[in-house]
Design brief:
The structure holds two protein chains of two kinds. By secondary structure, chain A is of the alpha/beta class. In chain A, helix 1 packs across helix 2 and helix 13 packs across helix 15. Chain B is of the alpha/beta class. Chain B has five helices and eight strands, in the order βββαβαβαβαββα. In chain B, helix 2 packs parallel to helix 3. Classes of the chains: A alpha/beta, B alpha/beta. Chains A and B meet through helix 2 and helix 7 of A and strand 2, helix 2 and helix 3 of B.
Chain lengths: 421, 149
């Protein structure tokens, strides 16, 4: 690998042991996979739940991180207590990776502060002002955010291990691999919708479409041709993340929407696709059937906000809940980033929603919420995103079944205590 | 028997092989405190701790490197990792945790290696030496005879 003089000095330890450790990790990774050089990272988004001794090892001798660094959604202990989850609790513990021990959490907060890391605790940094610009390089955790960064914002984020992301925050560098190589951004799988009525396409149908694309594409880059050219950000947010759930897609060129996708042929570098697929009403219907695993109508839990909610979603919920209340048998949990919560509070949405009995789980991961894993009484959960619909049955070992629909359907279910038929 | 491959992370190791035929992830397949395969896993009852882990490739969680690192820290990690073809996350697991690792061999390690084989790994040069213990060889020969009947 070709390193600049400064990069060599980082590698040799002139900038302290933490930088050296981080640099050696990135150089090894780059060399194994044939990177020719390092590229500068514009921003990093790290796992918040990093073991303290690992953080210490990687940041030894470091004053401040090199690039603007934010943290991913976590398990805020005060929110967990609000939900009646005992803290500390070992039940969702992966070693000491995911902890809801208040003391550990507080210590991590201090480390972040000292290193200049912004403890944003959200899976949606792009909703709270960290908006990627075309051509930027982001080293980030969160496959659901990565696909948006690559496919909507036209910036680059590779799927990478969490230690490499921290190393990039420390050094400001990443090896030029995968999506940072022009030819590896090209699509090899072409997907075209047929007989879908986009004028009446609901948000859950966008989710189902993404679900189908992910299954088809696996780990390949996709080009989606024939979509409406004016997709709203919310529609993009419904469509793309499921591709990283049923598949491991990090780059989906939506022709006319993705900045670097003016035509299908450009996205494939003028080469014919390896595979071509059509997705129609039948496939969408089948995906929705598979996402809706619940049979009994009675709802125990409503999970909104995985990824974290937009302010528009909160507005929709507040308007629907005005003058109503959440059914006595139902728990409504809303995952949100703290700054969006603050805005929602400022304009009165929080009061309306909390007044109706809804609960905000700000800063927390919604789909892996331990409420679901720990509470045996939850048989039927309702959600408006594919992530929880896909993962809650797994997380609860099949005990919890799911209804998947639009935000409006979910809120209706929260009020009535029953799913629409 | 000697196989030659590509070094992912250097180092020397020697020990018994544990062979897993499917893509491996440190998150979900092994207990992060003990290295034991989790309940319900096909290899449940076995452990990667102190073994030479042989598998086709990596899959899944990007949290893997930290779990591998934690296992090594508590002395329950694998002695080395041997695979057909590493993808970036499983390679980073080895690099982060400091586990010697080799992939891309001149012969398929999953074809020639069995659980229980004694393996000497020189991951720096990408060379491994496989010695099948006499007992295991006899056991397998008998098993083959049994199948033939």
């Amino acid at each position: 690998m070709q390193l600049t003089d400064q990069q060599k000095r980082m590698f040799e330890g002139e900038y302290g042991r933490g930088v050296q450790r981080a640099m050696s990790l990135l150089v090894k990774l780059g060399e194994v996979f044939g990177a020719e050089r390092m590229v500068s990272v514009d921003r990093a988004h790290i796992l918040a739940d990093m073991p303290a001794d690992f953080m210490a090892e990687m940041t030894e001798g470091l004053d401040k991180v090199t690039v603007l660094t934010t943290t991913h959604a976590s398990f805020n202990p005060s929110e967990m207590q609000k939900l009646g989850i005992p803290t500390p609790s070992g039940n969702i513990d992966i070693g000491d990776l995911l902890t809801i021990d208040p003391e550990v959490y507080a210590r991590r907060y201090l480390v972040f502060k000292r290193l200049g890391i912004l403890p944003t605790f959200t899976c949606t940094p792009y909703l709270i002002g960290f908006i990627p610009r075309r051509g930027e390089v982001l080293s980030m955790i969160g496959s659901l955010g990565q696909i948006l960064v690559n496919s909507v914002f036209g910036a680059t984020s590779n799927r990478e291990g969490i230690s490499a992301i921290l190393a990039s925050a420390v050094t400001g560098l990443t090896p030029q691999l995968n999506l940072l190589e022009e030819e590896k951004r090209l699509a090899t799988v072409l997907v075209e919708p047929e007989d879908l009525d986009f004028a009446r396409f609901t948000s859950s149908e966008y989710g189902a479409l993404g679900y189908c694309v992910g299954e088809i594409a696996g780990t390949s880059n996709v080009v989606l041709n024939g979509m409406p050219s004016k997709l709203s950000f919310d529609q993009c947010r419904r469509l793309l993340p499921p591709m990283a759930i049923t598949g491991a897609v990090a780059m989906c060129h939506i022709v006319g929407v993705t900045p670097e996708a003016p035509s299908p042929s450009v996205t494939m570098g003028g080469i014919r696709p390896k595979k071509t697929f059509k997705i129609g009403k039948q496939q969408i219907g089948h995906a929705l059937e598979r996402l809706n695993t619940a049979e009994q109508d009675q709802v125990d839990l409503v999970v909104i906000g995985c990824p974290h909610c937009t302010i528009e979603q909160i507005q929709t919920i507040a308007f629907m809940l005005a003058g109503k209340s959440v059914h006595a048998n139902v728990r409504l949990l809303i995952g949100i980033a703290q700054p969006i919560y603050a805005l929602a509070k400022m304009v009165g949405f929080v009061d309306t929603i909390e007044g109706a009995g809804g609960l905000f789980t700000s800063s927390c991961v919604s789909a892996l919420n331990p409420v679901v894993a720990l509470d045996d009484s939850i048989r039927v959960a309702v959600t408006d995103t594919v992530g929880p619909a896909y993962r809650l049955p797994q997380l609860s070992k099949g005990r919890t079944k799911v209804f998947f629909g639009d935000t409006e359907d979910c809120i209706m279910a929260a009020v009535k205590g029953k799913w629409r038929r | 028997m000697i196989l030659k491959g590509r070094s992912i992370n250097g180092g020397q190791a020697e020990g018994k092989a544990i062979v897993w035929k499917n893509a491996f992830s440190f998150l979900g397949e092994v207990d992060p405190q003990t290295g034991d395969f989790v309940e319900g896993h096909e290899l449940s009852g076995n452990s990667i701790a102190g073994r030479i882990l042989v598998f086709p490739t990596g899959r899944g969680s990007t949290a893997g490197p930290i779990i591998a690192w934690r296992l090594m820290k508590v002395g329950k990690g694998p002695k080395a990792m041997i695979c057909q073809e590493a993808e970036p996350v499983i390679a980073l697991d080895a690099i982060t945790a400091g586990v010697p690792m080799v992939d891309r061999f001149n012969e398929d390690p999953l074809e020639v290696m069995k659980t229980g084989d004694w393996v000497k790994v020189n991951a720096t040069d990408g060379v491994i030496e496989i010695k099948r213990p006499e007992g295991l060889r006899r056991h397998q020969a008998e098993k083959r005879k049994g199948h033939a009947k």
